[in-house]
Design brief:
The protein is an alpha+beta fold and 514 residues long. Helix content is 46%, strand content 17%. It folds into 2 domains: 54-91 and 149-293, Cytochrome Bc1 Complex, Chain A, domain 1 (2-Layer Sandwich), CATH 3.30.830; 312-512, Metalloenzyme, LuxS/M16 peptidase-like (Cytochrome Bc1 Complex, Chain A, domain 1), CATH 3.30.830.10. The chain contains 19 helices and 13 strands. The protein has a 6-stranded mixed sheet, sandwiched between helices.
């Protein structure tokens, strides 16, 4: 089955129009994924792919910006950085552990004084803060020379032939990944188990400055603040309002003790999924996984987010179908030196909800280059340079987004933004009562099929599994695909009526700064 899939995928993706999806129904993950769960809660997903003697390795933690609280926003992303700084046995010169720990203790004591001074109400002693930071920097420079081995974990993977070594943090998941020759699998498991249990957050405060600078670089992008504020306005209650990089005031003040406490809650085997895809033997692999991860203690499940956004359908579900939610329509107006834009954002349920397949397909159809919205606003009237529509696949409360970028001619808009906004709403209203063109829906389903098959091919399946298992359960990959392919024109009109309403909308208007 894998050989047929690999051979046919190139032709499949090269074709713009092919027969109604049927072959993909024969391909599923059910018989390909081997799942094991250790007594400590670590879930292991293995997929055999023998095309090359390589294994794609991902360790995914169910933690991200959505798990953060005010005061420590950005800590998940910061923690991702710190996991490359070493452990009790990595990132340190032989025989220098005690000296290294003493440097860490002295630096932490100085920076604790800085934190206390910065937290004082009213005027704070800036000269004292500067002096303490200078002392800490001097100690760090000595520590770097005497005890620290920079990027040793990274170097170990490279020396073993690793490629694609990196990590990423999102709103819901943090993952560490690398592709290695199959004979380096034991090295990988040893290093990742060590990082899970014994990380040492060396260079914490200098790396905090690096993360703050990373945010400053993002801030230099035109429109960054508008998008950030629009998202924060959209999520009035839910922690999806937190930017992944964090708010600057939190990034610059988070302490090492706060990160240690955060790590204890979320970075543990019962909150992690290990995904391995490649040339492997499941039984031999599990023996190694148990060797390195089996002895790590479980401390019970990590807390999940329980806040729900108070949207109209939330009120109707919790109070009753006859309840009339208050009409609240929010708008965010911004100016920036970038392309003018209109954004309409609607609250929708999580990815596992029965309405999500239809909402996903509605986004694909509404934003298609062969759809009515694009053909009218972009091609016929030339009011917009581009239009987009999409539904998120979120672990918690999601968003359906419809947007248009204004077309400019010699520095002037071809049409006012309020006219473009009215145009977007006209197509949203059409979606509620006018059935989609059957050919457009069929082309969209063909595209969805190609995306599904591509996600199953090769070792790239590891990322697909990590994402879905973290957000819900990996088996839903197949189920989600089948539900999307079963969507009808009536389904699209039904969800458009239910969710794309003005009292469920936050509007963003971004004007060009003159």
């Amino acid at each position: 089955m894998r050989l047929r899939l690999a051979a046919g995928l190139g032709l499949l993706l090269a074709s713009m129009c092919w027969p109604a999806p049927a072959a993909a129904q024969e391909v599923s993950l059910a018989g390909q994924v081997v799942e094991r769960v250790l007594p400590n809660g670590l879930k292991v997903l293995m997929v055999k792919r023998t095309e090359a003697p390589l294994i794609r390795c991902i360790l995914a933690y169910r933690v991200g910006a959505v798990n953060e609280r005010p005061g420590i926003t950005g800590i998940s992303h910061f923690h991702e950085h710190m996991m490359f700084k070493g452990t009790r046995s990595m990132g340190i010169k032989p025989g220098t552990f005690a000296r290294d720990e003493e440097y860490n203790r002295q630096i932490d004591a100085l920076m604790d004084q800085v934190a206390a001074e910065e937290a004082r109400p009213g005027a704070r002693d800036e000269a004292k803060i500067a002096g303490l930071k200078q002392q800490a920097s001097a100690l760090l420079e000595r520590q770097k020379k005497e005890t620290i081995v920079s990027e040793e974990i990274w170097s170990a993977y490279q020396a073993a032939g690793g490629t694609g070594i990196n990590a990423s943090t999102g709103s819901e998941m943090t993952q560490y990944y690398v592709t290695l020759p199959k004979n380096a699998l034991e090295l990988y498991l040893a290093l990742e188990a060590d990082r899970m249990v014994h990380p040492v957050f060396r260079e914490f405060y200098s790396e905090r400055d690096v993360v703050a600078e990373e945010r400053r670089m993002s801030e230099n992008s035109p429109g960054f603040f508008f998008q950030e504020q629009l998202n924060a306005t959209f999520y009035a209650a839910h922690p999806y309002a937190n930017p992944v990089v964090g708010w600057m005031s939190d990034i610059s003040r988070v302490t090492k003790q706060e990160m240690i406490a955060y790590r204890e809650i979320y970075y543990r085997p019962d909150n992690a999924t290990l995904v391995l895809a490649g040339d492997l033997d499941p039984e031999q692999t599990m023996a190694l996984v148990e060797k390195y991860f089996g002895g790590i203690a479980s401390r019970g499940p990590s807390p999940r987010v329980r806040t729900e956004e108070p949207s109209p359908f939330y009120y109707r579900r919790t109070i009753g179908g006859s309840f009339k939610p208050p009409f609240i329509e929010k708008r965010v107006i911004g100016r920036a030196a970038t392309n003018p834009q209109v954004v309409l954002m609607f609250h929708i349920p999580p990815l596992w909800h029965d309405d999500l397949p239809a909402l996903y397909m509605l986004g694909r159809v509404l934003g298609a280059r062969t759809g009515r919205m694009y053909l009218d606003l972009v091609q016929a009237k030339e009011h917009a340079a581009s239009v987009m529509a999409s539904a998120s696949d979120s672990m918690y409360d999601g968003v359906f987004r419809v947007s248009a970028t204004g077309r400019e001619v010699q520095g002037e808009l071809a049409a006012p933004l309020d006219q473009i906004e009215k145009g977007l709403w006209s197509f949203i209203e059409d979606a509620k009562s006018v059935p989609v063109d059957p050919q457009l829906l069929e082309r969209t389903k063909n595209s969805v099929e190609a995306q599904y098959l591509q996600g199953l091919a090769g070792t790239g399946i590891a990322g697909t599994l990590a994402r879905m298992e973290t957000a819900y359960r990996w088996q839903y990959i197949d189920e989600q695909y089948r539900r999307r392919m079963a969507v009808t024109p009536d389904d699209l009109m039904r969800v458009a009526k239910a969710y794309l309403t003005r009292d469920n909308c936050v509007t963003g208007i971004l004007e060009r700064e003159q």
